[in-house]
Every structure is written in structure tokens, then in C-alpha cells.
Specification:
single chain; alpha+beta; Pnp Oxidase, Chain A; Thrombin, subunit H; nine-stranded antiparallel beta sheet; six-stranded antiparallel beta barrel; 3 helices; disordered N terminus
């Protein structure tokens, strides 16, 4: 699957750059991606080196001055930590594509009734989506679920909705009234039920937690299959193929 990390490490790894196929560094292309985030009011998570995280959105783009403006709540407890760090990694999603880029020169701008978090326009953006891991949204009428125990509260049993799946992982919906699950957590023995014919057990590793825009609703847990046996992998691939075919038929209807 595309690199579902919280965020991924983007440093050099020897002579061959393993990130070249994911990098967008032409200024016009970078600005085009940023405009998509702005125009779509796409949720963006800012992650500081010290672990501070802010769920926000890009509401203004000044390409002449090379500045971004993110929405900011002056009372948010993580805001000052982000500004003090002066840098962060931004993570956002456009459909099934994960976007990641560095933001630097963080500056909190206050007005009478509002605030904005400014940063420099990034020089490059990374797009993570691998050809071999087509990700499909689950068909709602089948109510796909993941049964698991909360990693911090083993006595709490959860049945979370599966938002989408790929051969590399899945996304789960965690309601706002359920205690948070931290990135990096490993969920053992998760019971996956995608439809009546696709059921299997597999461990999941939480790579990122993404706001869905309305904090009262819940968050998206981006997960990687920690290990799939052969039977589960075949069942999953069959489900993905069938879901793609059904969606094509629905689009023709």
C-alpha cells in the first residue's frame, strides 16, 4: 500500500533515492496540489518533532510571497508547541493518495476574533500510492467491521467500521466517544468481517490518526496489516476485485 505512516521518514537511504517516484518538486505542481487542499477544505495534520499534533486545514495560499495559512484555534493546547518547534510535517489525504510535506517558518498570526498559523510554501510534496495496492472504499450495505480489544483497555471490546481496504492495510472509523488509540499501537487478533464470504483474523498496526473534519464525529485510523496468512490474503484480494467490479456496475446504472 502507499506508505501509511505518521509520517514516514524521508531521509536519504544510500546511493539510490527510494523516494524519487513519490516526490513532486516542480513549483507549479506543488502549488496545484496545495490549491486542491485549500479548495477542498481537506483536513491536514501538522506533526511537530516533539510529538505535538494539530488537526487543521489550509484556508489560504499566497504563492507570490510563498506563504501558507492554516486555520488555528488560539486556545488549542498544541498550538504554542508547534510554533516553538518552528517546523512540522503535514499529512493529508486526497481520495486514496496520501500527501506529506515539510512546513517551516511557523508563525502564529492573531486578529481580534481569529488566528492563523502561517508557514513557508514547501519545495516538495510526497504522494504515496503504490500501483500494487489499489484501495477500495467498502460498500456501505455490507457494513464491514473490525472486532478488536482497545489496546489501552483490554476489557473494552470494539466493533469499528471499516472505511476502506487494500492488500497492505485498511482504515477504521473510531467514534469520538471512544477513548483514543495512539499511532504506533499494535492491535492483535482483529476480527475482520468485510462481507458474508470474507472473514479473517489479522493483527493491525496503527500508523496515523486523521481528523475527519468534524471533531465531534470521530477520526480515521490508518492501519497496516502486520501479518496476513495466505488464506486471508487471498480472501482480501478477492474482496477488492469484487468490490471494484460492483462499483463499475453501479457507475453504469
Amino acid at each position: 500500500m502507499f506508505e501509511n505512516t505518521r509520517p514516514a521518514a524521508l531521509g536519504p537511504a544510500g546511493g539510490i533515492d527510494p523516494w524519487a517516484e513519490f516526490r513532486v518538486d516542480h513549483p507549479r505542481e506543488v502549488l496545484a496540489i496545495l490549491r486542491q487542499l485549500r479548495d477542498g477544505n481537506v483536513p491536514v495534520n501538522l506533526n511537530a518533532p516533539d510529538g505535538a499534533m494539530l488537526a487543521t486545514s489550509l484556508w489560504a495560499l499566497d504563492d507570490e510571497r510563498g506563504r501558507l495559512n492554516f486555520s488555528a484555534d488560539p486556545a488549542h493546547p498544541q498550538l504554542e508547541r508547534l510554533v516553538e518547534e518552528n517546523e512540522a510535517v503535514a499529512v493529508a489525504y486526497l481520495d486514496s493518495v496520501k500527501l506529506q510535506f515539510d512546513v517551516a517558518g511557523l508563525l502564529l498570526v492573531r486578529s481580534l476574533n481569529a488566528a492563523a498559523l502561517q508557514a513557508q510554501v514547501p519545495r516538495e510534496v510526497y504522494r504515496f500510492q503504490r500501483r500494487g495496492a489499489y484501495r477500495v472504499r467498502t460498500l456501505e450495505q455490507h457494513s464491514p467491521t473490525a472486532g478488536l480489544r482497545h489496546p489501552a483497555m483490554p476489557d473494552m471490546t470494539l466493533a469499528l467500521r471499516v472505511l476502506d481496504v487494500s492488500v497492505g492495510g485498511c482504515a477504521l472509523f473510531l467514534p469520538a466517544d471512544v477513548p483514543a488509540i495512539e499511532p504506533g499501537s499494535t492491535l492483535a487478533g482483529v476480527q475482520i468481517e468485510l462481507d458474508a464470504d470474507t472473514r479473517f483474523s489479522a493483527p493491525l498496526r496503527i500508523h496515523h490518526v486523521t481528523s475527519l473534519g468534524n471533531s465531534d464525529r470521530g477520526v480515521r485510523l490508518g492501519c497496516e496489516w502486520a501479518q496476513l496468512d495466505g488464506q486471508a490474503a487471498r480472501a482480501l484480494q478477492r474482496y477488492i476485485d469484487q468490490t471494484q467490479k460492483r462499483r463499475r456496475l453501479l457507475s453504469l446504472g
